[in-house]
Amino acid sequence: MKKVLILGAGLVARPLVRYLLDQPDLQVEVASRTVSKAEKLIEGHPRGLAKELNLKSEEILKDEVSRADLVISMVPYSFHPKVAEFCIIHKKHMVTTSYVSEAMKKLDGEARKAGIMILNELGLDPGIDHMEAMRIIDEIKGKGGEIQSFISFCGGLPAPEANTNPFGYKFSWSPVGVLLAGKNSAQFLKDGQEIFIPSENLFENYSFIAIEGLGVFEAYPNRNSLPYIDLYGIPETKTMLRGTLRNFGWCETIKKMVQLGVLDQEEKDWTGLTYADFLRRLIGSPAEKDLKKALCEYLQIEPGMAIVRRLEWLGLMSDEPLPVQKGSALDIVAARMIEKLQYGEGERDMIALQHEFIARYPNGDREKIISTLIDFGIPGGDSSMARTVGLPAAIGTKLILEGKIKERGVHIPVLPDIYRPILQELQGLGIAFKEKRERL
Q1: Which of 125, 129, 331, 349 is catalytic?
Q2: Are residues 239 and 256 in contact, defined by beta-carbon separation less than 8 angstroms?
Q3: Which of 211, 245, 285, 393 could form a disulfide with 280 if both were Cys (CB 3.0 to 4.6 A apart)?
Q4: 139: left (phi over 0), alpha (psi -120 to 50) or beta
Q5: Ranges of each domain in the chain
Q6: Is 375 a residue of the active site?
């Protein structure tokens, strides 16, 4: 019986764990700093084991890796290279749902020498987005065509009936990760021109995207899209843009929150302060000045604007005491947002992922292909975010252990032997794309 070691027991881990426990020939060990979270995922399954593990205890981590056949790292991305090094030493396969970092890329040669697969970006975005993109790109190339444009946007959002707060958002994964996205710059190719957007201007550069059956969303560029020109094997494309979908008002709100300094990660002493005191300190406003007026002056906005109402609703102008005495501004705001922007009992989240391709064929014909995934969470069960992140990683894990994925080294799921069986099984699990095609 083969053993899978899962590092982390966060919000998206349950479908991953349960899928693997459903495989009769696998033993599944979930290691987490908070062992109770791991125990909740295992639910007493006879082939499951929950363990307490501090990732900073390198010798213990190395020992755990040595006794597994494959390691799934669901912890913060900064830990992945260290886990990968231990996997290389002990010749153990590895799967992550995170972007490939520069440190991880450098391990490709060593992973190949060790004869192991380190398969990254095997979640939703990144993950399912890559696999569906490559399915269509390979189909177009198989007809002798070329890609002239590729635009992709993905968002994890409340289902329409659960969109009940002024932020138009609820957390189905780490709030810190969502907020820190505001520190990312963006690069993409548009009509043959490379465009760079510094992080401070990111949320000014959004557009509007229509998703059939759902409506119109804000869409802003996500990180650096340029490497995917080579990774997808489409050097001929004139447009390559990958981005994020949000409900109306999100970009303006996060831009102003970044301006306030809520993404500051420096630990400070907030002893005895209220949320209003905290906000005053961020904007440098004296206690005697009207807080709302001071806020509007600082952000250079009018008092009636929606951003003011959102910050009021969040409670940042209230006299409630802060929940922590010491920590960063990011810690305080992330904790407050997850308290206020959470799903109620029975509420569903939603995933919307849309690819748009412009293809040109040898006979001169041009075609627009729109491929859309809309998926909803299960009321009282797994969120769509958890399913669409966790299940691709679980299926990929099974395929590696069964010897059906034979590539070695550091990879993302852009090869047919990887993406075809995973997409096919996801379709059987109800996670499927719909295509719309038109000649141009």
Answers
A1: 125
A2: no
A3: 285
A4: alpha
A5: 2-119, 128-252+345-384+432-439, 269-327
A6: no
Q: How many CB atoms lie within 10 A of CB 309?
A: 12
Give SS3 for 286. coil
Q: What is the pTM of this model?
A: 0.90
* 204: three-class secondary structure by DSSP: helix
CATH, range 128-252+345-384+432-439: 3.30.360.10
Is 3.40.50.720 the CATH classification of the domain at 2-119? Answer: yes
* Dihedral, 418, 424, 426, 430 alpha carbons, nearest 10: 170
Q: Identity (one letter) of the amino acid at 148?
A: Q
- Rounded distance between C-alpha atoms, residue 62 and residue 22, angstroms: 27
Residues 72-116: tens digit of each pLDDT = 999 888 889 999 999 999 999 999 999 999 999 999 999 999 999
Residue ranges of E strands in 316-432: 326-327, 349-360, 366-376, 409-411
Distance CA 355, CA 246 (A): 16
